Amino acid sequence: KRWLPWYGNIRSNMKTWRPQAGDRRPQTGKTKFFLFRSPVSRFRSPVFLALFFLLLRGIPGLAGAETLWAEKAKRAADAEDIVIKSGTFSRLAEELSPAVVNLRIMQKVTTYQDFPSPRGSQKGRSPNMEERGEGSGFIINKDGYILTNAHVVADSDEIQVALTNGKLFKGKVIGLDMVTDIALVKVDAPYALPTLSLGDSSLLKPGEWVLAIGSPFGLEQTVTTGIVSGKGRSLGRSPYDDYIQTDASINPGNSGGPLINIYGEVVGINAAVLAQSQGLGFSIPINIVKMLLPQI
User: Fold this and answer.
1) Which of 136, 156, 201, 255 does the annotation list as catalytic?
2) E strands of 57-156, at which residues?
3) 91: left (phi over 0), alpha (psi -120 to 50) or beta
4) Helices of type H across the chain
5) Is 181 assigned a catalytic role?
6) Residue of 181, 215, 229, 249 marked active site
7) Does residue 203 sit in helix, strand or coil?
8) Does the annotation count 229 as an active-site position?
9) Which residue in the list 151, 201, 229, 249 is annotated as catalytic?
10) What is the pTM of this model?
11) Is 114 a catalytic residue?
12) What is the mean pLDDT for each group of 10 consecutive residues in the chain (296 residues)?
């Protein structure tokens, strides 16, 4: 704190101090005043300025995370609606399917086998990887970043990522959040991968056409269409319950796949279906994903 002699009226941001017994401050016998540190002055510290400029340049997982995904130019409010034609959905499926992947969840399993030996056949342990489930995902960055559901990749010992061109890569979980059911997986490919653009789920309206691509029951690159049946649905699964309801067919294996609008933008991640129901699928709004992704 900076000490100043008093030569005028007391200002609102100053405080009086008089010498007290045992006080280590200079005992001059005169009244001293010191300036309270202004909140603005705290932002002038070298540490804060350094952090501020680092944030401006972008730190992975903090600022600059918007470069992790791509978004199309925002549509004008008076933009004309797309006319649905016979080839609209087939064109979207052909263009977007290469960026949708199949995730094969592998877990370590120990088996016992008979091994020949001088003393006769003996049993020995043999660790193997077995497929314990499947799911879907979609690439959001050409460097191999993939979005999917957390419940798809949780508790996996290994993830195999299958592309539409037949290539198979080993995936690594970068981060996941079980509360919102969002996960980010990374693959290292020797070439740039196709990607999907993220849209604005707040612009969705009930009755709009949507497209779902995924691997239900292991049937890769399955395309289904439907409409947005409702928004803001709560399933009691997390504090972020704000699901998009759709009648586009979503089945086991579709989890983690994209829900796409007619503009070719991802507006949700397919996440759940109601048991013993038909035409009741639910997707996590992509705006929630974009809000939380920098923290994963």
Assistant:
1) 255
2) 100-115, 122-141, 145-148
3) alpha
4) 39-42, 46-57, 88-96, 150-153, 286-292
5) yes
6) 181
7) helix
8) no
9) 151
10) 0.72
11) no
12) 39 44 47 38 45 42 62 75 87 96 88 61 64 92 96 93 95 94 96 96 95 92 95 82 92 94 96 81 95 88
